[in-house]
Specification:
2 helices, 18% helix, eight-stranded antiparallel β-sheet, single chain, 13 strands, alpha+beta, Chondroitinase Ac, Chain A, domain 3
Length: 214
């Protein structure tokens, strides 16, 4: 009896080893022949595809009132304690026709409409108003100041190559970028001056110059 126990134990261990090896081979073969059940990744949109009204930009909101001013703006260096503005919108008292919410967003160039018409210095700016939670494109009752504060290079181009820098508004009806008809320059604003488009319109704004026709 004492000799049978080691023999039985050896047989049991041997059978277990065989089963482990066969199980591993079966698992490997099964995995190779199994069709993946997960879905493939979503294709990356082509550059310029509009994924939403405000794309992937950063947005700010403020309340518009008929008798109050509203100044919404982005900082050039939001992570640093530097009082340098990137751009924004100044709404003087009387520019708002009714109580509303103004939203301004920085829009990456790849999300700007008809982006191939211009060469750009920076991201675009989108300015909208919402009345009772709904987008309202009624023009302002008085002009608001949409502006970009210039960098040193942009100021140099403005002073020496004026045909290579301009302030443009997107016309959704014609699907074209058009020069701002009421443009002013404030040399005292910011470090290098401020280019201002005085307008009652809402929509996309950009700093750049026309691209050459292909």
């Amino acid at each position: 009896m004492s000799n049978r126990k080691p023999l039985v134990t050896t047989l049991i261990v041997g059978v277990m080893l065989v089963l482990v090896v066969l199980g591993g081979v079966w698992s490997s073969t099964s995995a190779q022949n199994t069709v993946p059940t997960h879905r493939p990744p979503t294709p990356t949109p082509l550059p310029g595809d509009l994924t939403g009204q405000f794309g992937e930009g950063t947005c700010l909101r403020g309340k518009l009132a008929t008798d109050k001013e509203l100044d919404l703006f982005f900082m050039r260096y939001p992570q640093k304690f530097l009082d340098v503005r990137w751009g924004g919108v100044q709404n003087p008292a009387g520019s708002a026709c009714q109580e509303a919410v103004e939203m301004i967003c920085t829009i990456p160039v790849r999300f700007l409409p008809q982006r191939g018409q211009l060469n750009y210095y920076r991201e675009g700016l989108e300015v909208r108003q919402f009345v009772k939670g709904k987008l309202d494109e009624t023009e302002s009752c008085a002009p608001k100041a949409v502006y970009f504060e210039l960098t040193g290079y942009e100021r140099y181009m403005y002073d020496h190559n004026n045909d290579r820098i301009g302030f443009f508004i997107y016309n959704p009806e014609n699907k074209t970028w058009e020069s701002c008809p009421d443009l002013t320059f404030d040399a005292d604003a910011g470090d290098h001056g401020r280019l201002v488009c005085n307008t009652t319109q809402w929509g996309f704004f950009a700093l750049g110059w026309p691209a050459k026709p292909k």
